Amino acid sequence: MSTRYTELLGIDHPVVQDGMGPFRTTGLAAAVSNAGGLGSLSSPTASGARDGARELRAAIDECASLTGKPFAVNIPVDGKGHDSHSFTRAFLEVVVRARAADSAIASQLRAVTTSAGNPADHSAMIKDAGLVHQHKVGSTQHARKAVEQGADVVIASGYEMGGHTHSKPVHTFVLGPNITEAVDVPVLLSGGIRDGRGLAAALCVGAEGVAMGTRFIASDANTEWHPNYARAILDAREGDDVTYPGFFGPVRGLRNAGSELLGSIIENGTSTEDSLHEWKLAAMRKAQADGDTVDGLVLAGQVASALTEIVAVAELVPGMVRDAVRILDDLARRLPAAGVTSMS
Ligand SMILES: Cc1cc2nc3c(=O)[nH]c(=O)nc-3n(C[C@H](O)[C@H](O)[C@H](O)COP(=O)(O)O)c2cc1C
């Protein structure tokens, strides 16, 4: 399936694994890229600017050793690490230097996805380095602004997404067509996508691919999250998700004792900003590394309610494209037969 997006990135399938920091997604990114999609390394935002920069550089080398295909790096904007230094510029410099130092990495590391803030201060650096600039937004206004500032690709991520979501809730099926009408660059639809039906729907609203997070946590290539985390995602049902204050804005995760406790800590109002920041990081690690999905924070999207099994990335990515093509073909054949010749 060729779209402007696959052509721009030099990939086979318009299916992207989006960043899921502060966790490492190195093996996952390589698996998605090897499957013909685009994998993304995540920013180690919890490690601070200096240590995080070292970790990101190691992740770039490791990813390039696991795949010969294109991959991306996700860097949230304007965030502050626990040492209160902005990591955005530090991580961008790592990406630019890694490409300058190694021509193989330069040919593979094609894109930077900025998110969580205004990319205006960073767009020129990304573009000057010859990278494709993708920016993730939750509103049409931010999509327009990002394109004005030079973004090559917009990721339209609806409120139902996992992890950091948006302060003004606009859901995927409203946001997608709003944004594809408003901008000329390729748009990826994100938030709640799980299979080929989601890809077909994305194409129908004018997007040129999809980006997913939660689906990939419950996959065979996820080696960074404790199996209990993937289990909690598979066990989740509609209504089991909740939003709570994260680091850049609201975060979506599963409702559990950890999310309830966070609510009471915030309501008490006795924690300092720093101690709350540390508490949240520790609670996220408790779920992701130790597998305590009761007291830890389990970041995940609403799509968790629809996932029932661990999937193989090597089958999921091309399978989504096959299914999307079949669905669109079937519809094109069946609708005229049913007497539907025009839906306008
Ligand atoms: C555990 C987790 C961590 C995430 N961390 C980040 C992040 O560091 N940066 C970012 O831009 N998005 C982050 N996201 C959002 C994803 O990149 C993606 O936009 C989202 O998962 C898409 O919605 P979906 O979960 O319904 O597929 C995270 C999502 C999850 C589930």
TrEMBL record:
<dbReference type="InterPro" id="IPR013785">
    <property type="entry name" value="Aldolase_TIM"/>
</dbReference>
<dbReference type="InterPro" id="IPR004136">
    <property type="entry name" value="NMO"/>
</dbReference>
<keyword id="KW-0288">FMN</keyword>
<dbReference type="GO" id="GO:0016491">
    <property type="term" value="F:oxidoreductase activity"/>
</dbReference>
<protein>
    <submittedName>
        <fullName>NAD(P)H-dependent flavin oxidoreductase</fullName>
        <ecNumber>1.13.12.-</ecNumber>
    </submittedName>
</protein>
<dbReference type="Pfam" id="PF03060">
    <property type="entry name" value="NMO"/>
</dbReference>
<keyword id="KW-0560">Oxidoreductase</keyword>
<keyword id="KW-0285">Flavoprotein</keyword>
